[in-house]
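Justification of computing resources. Each target in the renewal requires a structure prediction run like the one illustrated here; the chain below, 98 residues long, is used simply to show the kind of job we budget for.
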Amino acid sequence: MADQLNEYVDHIRENIDDHVVCYRQNYAQKYELGLMKFGGAKSSIEIEPIVEGVVVVGGYSGIVGKYVKELKNKHLNIDFLEMRNSLVIKSSNQMWSS
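Resulting structure tokens:
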């Protein structure tokens, strides 16, 4: 997973100018077709040539934390985000969260 992410990020960085041109054209085409119907949509966009790779790890909070820590220690050049699951139960006079 780490090697694959690093290779992908390197590829995008090496070809960023081509990707920026492509994404701008793609956006403009969608705009012209009326597919960009959100408030404030403009006919063209600016894209910052910044590339970052991030791995999002999800699972039960009691288990996933240990694996995220291991991954962070093993792959220092990659950002890992931990997505925790929780359950919130509301009653008329109390709230529990786990």
